[in-house]
Design goal:
The protein is built from one helix and no strands. The radius of gyration is 42 Å and the shape is rod-shaped. The chain is an all-alpha fold.
Amino acid sequence: MEQEVNQHTILQAILELSKQMQDIKSDLQQQIEAVEKRLEGKLEAVEKRLEEKNEVLEKRLDKVEQNLSRKIDLVDAKFDILSSDLITTKAEVSMLKQVK
């Protein structure tokens, strides 16, 4: 009889521990889910900020490209003018040499 009581007590203890383990498991799962939700929210916020920063950088890059293009066109035009003036000056010098 005492062996049956011990087995019954052991079985009850095992069942109680099993229930406690299930409760702990459930609690841990809930905590993990809460952490996942917080992390997803933070990750989405970071992704949004990154996209915004990327858009700002792209706009700045476009402006820089436009400014550089205008400056390159201006320098090109100046070279054309200087080149034309140089040719004219060389022609005038050549004509002066021929006159002498």
